[in-house]
Specification:
CATH architecture of the largest domain: 2-Layer Sandwich
Mean pLDDT: 92
Helix content: 25-40%
Radius of gyration: 27 Å
Number of helices: 14
Strand content: 15-25%
Distance between the termini: 37 Å
Shape: globular
Largest sheet: 8 strands, mixed
CATH class of the largest domain: Alpha Beta
Number of domains: 2
Low-confidence stretches: 6-11
CATH superfamily of the largest domain: Bira Bifunctional Protein, Domain 2
Order of helices and strands: HHEEEEEHHEEEHEHEEHHHEHHEEEHHEH
Amino acid sequence: LLSKQVKTSFARAVSIKNLLSHPKSGGEVTVKGWVQKIRIMKNVVFLDINDGSCHSDMQIVVTKDKSRKFNYGDSLEVKGQLIQSARNNFEIHSNEVKVLGECKTTEGYPFTPSQSHAPEYVRNYLHLRPKQKKFASLLRVRHHALMSFTDFLNKNGFINVHTPILTSNDCEGAGEIFFVTPFSEKVLKEMQRPGIPLENAFFDKKIFLSVSGQLHLEAVANAVGNTYTFSPVFRAENSKSPIHLCEFYMLEAELAFQSNLVELSRFIENMLRNVTEDILLKCSTDMQQCGFHYQKLKNLFDNSDNWPIVQFGDALEILYKNKHKLNTSIVSNDGLSKEQEVFLTKHFDSPVFITNWPKELKPFYMRSSKADPEKVDALDLLVPTIGELVGGGLRENDLSRLKQYQNSSLDWYVQLRKFGNVPTAGFGLGFERYLLFITGVKNIRDVIPFPRWAHHCFM
């Protein structure tokens, strides 16, 4: 009975997206949305409303009534006839218009109708930012990108796993982690055991916000096969960079029975090609609102040539030969700067995989290269304008090597290699960086609803 009531409630209003996709002139419809524009004529008022289902507005024709006034931003419920206008556009000739919520624009509302606002200004009003049509377009692209990634992985037999937010691991080993402890000192004192510091009393050990779900995914992949997770991760980085956040989302996957770095690279490439082509096909209108160059991105993915796979040492040689074109110093022990990463994508005129990294530049769990024990079978995928988008590699299976890095909090990880272990490979994709790449948005704080970065945690 409850499900029938819910269906009936939603059936009363039709989304503007559905109306414009399958218009039937003359039919009576009900729509709900927010006023975007108001044009007052002699006998009628034209209202453009948007309900968030698509970028396009629906024009409402309202008989002029001096007793009624509408404001930009008002939420309305409109009943009327869907009519094809002389310009072949569809509009609703209203029979009834109900104001559901008034927008008091004179009481501090920060946005002006029909005016473009700078992203830096809009970012000051995160709670109201979704009302900006450009940002609403970004949210729809973000939604569709997530659906497309999960659809691709599901169709390829991956199982979704919820990895924990609270963890005793720092699997990246960088130390840029958030320490977690209860706010209540009373609770901590009640729970404290002998020999345990007060700040660790709740779990009897130090606990952090997760920087990655990868190690947990490996545990699951060793029992059920290919797995993935889409989760928030946290980095305590004091950075003002336009490509860094303290809280962001990662798509991470582990492939069981996989020990070939080229095959892993081609899987990542195939996934990104499929997802991006799907977004270009289904979200082109919203993508254009974000400021991206449709044809440039389309050309990049229409090229059927496989993306180059280049060893780290060979990439350094290319950079040395072109150092006069670079502003940053080339230091092999420091890895690649963003400028150098982007230069390599320009050099190959394509996304490019960088493989066979020096072991000191990658985490302990990357497999040592059989050809050179000073290298590991790791990869970074570099893409134009962004640089690193994906990091991954083959996982170390050699117990003796793992024990060199072992600490007590990772005993369980080493133990995985003792009980029916299989070779695994995996990767992590920064979701917000991917959105920067495909949309052309300049700052990562503008592709996530509620960004967190150093000194900023509003709401």
